[in-house]
Sequence to fold (1011 residues):
Amino acid sequence: MNMELSRRQFLGTAGAGVAGTTLGALGFGGVEEAYASTIKPFRLVNTTEARNTCTYCSVACGIIIYSKGSLAKGEKADITHIEGDTDHPTNRGTLCPKGAALISYVKSEQRLKYPMIRRAGSDKFERVSWNEALDKIAKAMKADRDQNLVQKNKDGVTVNRWTTTGFLAASATTNETAMCTYKVVRSTGMVVFDNQARV
Amino acid sequence: MTNSWTDIKNADLVVIMGGNAAEAHPCGFKWVTEAKATRGAKLVVVDPRFTRSAAVADYYAPIRQGTDIAFLNGVMNYLIQNDKIQWDYVKAFTNASFVVKEGFTYQDGLFTGYDEQKRDYNRSTWDYEMGPDGYAVVDETLQNPRCVWNLLKQHVSVYTPELVERITGTPKDKFLKVASMMAECSAPNKTMTSMYALGWTQHSKGSQNIRCMAMIQLMLGNIGVRGGGMNALRGHSNIQGLTDLGLMSNLIPGYLTLPTEREADFNAYMSTRGFKPLRPNQMSYWQNYKKFFVSFQKTMWGPAATAENNFAYDWLPKLDVPAYDVLRAFELMDQGKMNIYFCQGFNPLQAFPNKAKLARALGKLKLLVVMDPLETETARFWENHGIYNEANPASIQTEVIQLPTTCFAEDEGSLVNSGRWLQWHWPGGSPPGEAKTDVFIMSQIHLRLKEMYRKDGGAVPEPIVNLTWNYKDPNEPTAEELAKEMNGSVLTDVLDPNDPTKKVLEAGKQLASFGLLRDDGSTAAGCWIYTGCFTEAGNMMARRDNSDPGDTGAYSKWSFSWPANRRIIYNRASCNLDGQPWDDTRKLIWWDGAKWTGFDVPDIAPTAKPRDVGPFIMNPEGVSRLFTRGMMRDGPFPVHYEPFESPVANLIAPKVRGNPVARVFKDDFAQFADTGSKEFPYAATSYRLTEHFHYWTKTNHVNSVLQPEFFVEISPELAKEKGIANAGWVRVWSKRGSVIAKAYVTKRIRPLMVDGKATHIVGIPIHWGFVGAAKKGFPANVLTPFVGDANIETPEYKAFLVNIEPTTGPVA
Ligand code: SF4
Fold:
């Protein structure tokens, strides 16, 4: 990561531009200098930084995640603080009430921790192992596909279309996840396939 | 967005209509503040509610929800009547001069070719007159009565300020003020930007709402320029990326389309995708479709996709309907025609209309698989939560598997922001418990299927067993590996035809741009519009140089923006016919006598001479379209249609109900309130609050505390009429369901006079449900109608009918 370099570059270029405006009152000016010169060295001593972007809206504000422990060193990392990235051209360190509370998402009591299954007719979820869950899913898919894949339509045209299983893709996963998801889903012939763009 | 968040600082006029950026996109909205502070830009807000954006606007005009087209067609009429048109731009860069075929007409709200039974048009007359030279006929003098400009002029002429007021409820003087502010931006040195979001898309004619404003922006010469553009603010952090990558029923990454069953073979498929230029010299960039398509197929199936098997054309499914979108999926589920459904980071029980129908449909599945970092209502649709989710678990046979996934803070990769920037991020923490990445889960499913099909055979195993999976650890490919695959690489050496000792492309190398893609199978690219994001020079998406030469707001060295790192698309149109900027103070690119150069990557071939090649290179016309031919299902020009549930009949076409070609399933039609219904007299709309993000932050303590309780907003006038006290309990119900909420009586909402009658508005914020840290409450989709936009099936969340009455609190 070349974050050190970019922070200096930011100060070098934006600092001069901001000085002459009245924008300080509106949220952009000055904030970054104050930040870089005071708080950052203090935090760096104790924590690891990672550059990330806010998971909520597509303004995609830059954030810095501070953690105890370093993933890069193969350690377990516990996130202790998240704040706006002053280097980021869009948000320049600012965050809205959602971004400012991102750590409350990461640490939410509703974070899922284990694979669970709710059996037919049951009124509760039960723990299940990853292997059992994944085997069950793959077997169910194969059985359904083998039975219901439409290979040819009534005019004899090869259509290889699977409509009895469907997939709703996410809206906050990475492009790389999406690429992987696309390959896996489309290679089965699934067409009931959509994402969150509509809502 | 055609432009970017940081570009908004270049605008002279910001119009927020169909969105509420100050509330929903706060840190992006700062760029509006910047434009106001540094350029003296003005902000106009048009909205049914006096929103947080309206609170800081220079001018606010109210409008009844679902009538934006009447308003905007009225603006077009105003621009034409008052000659506030950037003529040089319109004549050279739009299809104003193109002559439309004989036979095309419009009358009483309908265009030629309507079939009431099918709720569809035969669109064959919606096209240009073709000349003997094989090109579209144009009349540069704009005299021909059948040229696009004259047809448009006639089409919008009924939308007078008086009619606009009768339909929209916007007082005439306010409408005229907004129209005149927009009209000022017809000057070449004034630009207006349009910022919109779900307030425009979530209508049965959402696509046409946006189209209207795009047409206005073309008439004002504001597309392709700094501080201009059509800026969809977008919602979720990577919904742009998921759409770019084609995770939709009918798409292939990079906006290619899946075959339909009418395209029995590859030749038939390609025959409608030739994109022959409609005017001489035009680039018509989609002519390269085959290169993009073959390179995609090579990504999927590598050596198994060969010229002999038409690059595995038959391994792609072929569609029998336009799309299996979410609404159709739930309709099929409800009919018992689906067995398994996956929800990856998606909570459809809250996110799609008519919750009762959704819950019923989920109960007919055999298996529901939920992959999510958080608890969702969807995963627990079978659980009884009293009035918030009535269910009898014993009677629901659906098996549910819930898989814990990592969140943004624990994974690596890129997301695409509204401005098309692919920004890379790094993980900061370890996942909780046994949570895994979505990539792990998808890989495991694939590897298991592959193994079973290899061993046991089954229905058409080829596309699964041949799917390329060349990752170092097949169990969990890395983000870098997948990013490189999206970008694309050279598969076999390509030799210089003039000197076979030289390689033009070398096998194994990452491709630098999509211009290098080939249709013979020698290149692969998962998503052609992303090519250039991960090249031999490294990961361009991870770039963090925030310098901005020329202070343009482009930030060209920060991350990577598609296509080709271009920050403002159609930027050729920022220059006049001779290639010089319309406005010297807002230079972006220009023609230096030999080539295009400047601060941004030119959206045109670098040496394409200014007067030869038009700026809209993706269109076969080379120009932009004021008349969209047959490309949209509901018409080549926008028409005002009322929402499906409307307090009044359509004034311009009383016989037309809703959008005449929107798809409505039979049972859903029966669940719409009648036009002007006495039973459901109030016009409702839904929206979110700045503290909340849809239904996600409900699981987040801080945000749940900030805005803790479900409420609805009504005007003091309606409160008085119904005897509702501020903070008192009310019941709100539609033909589909009923909710109980606290009433917030506020002047932010006022009744509007619609055709002489007071129309009351009920505002319904979204956030609440039955799981999470927040107090239990109702989601808006208990009330909303199950119908989508005629072109892209976005549900009509912004305009529907309800009734309201005071009640006592919920019995828990
Ligand atoms: S901090 Fe707020 S404005 Fe920025 S990306 Fe997150 S939700 Fe959007």
Q: What stands out?
A: The longest strand of chain A covers residues 158-168. Residues 1-29 of chain A have pLDDT under 50 and may be disordered. Chain A touches chain B through 138 residues (CB under 8 Å).
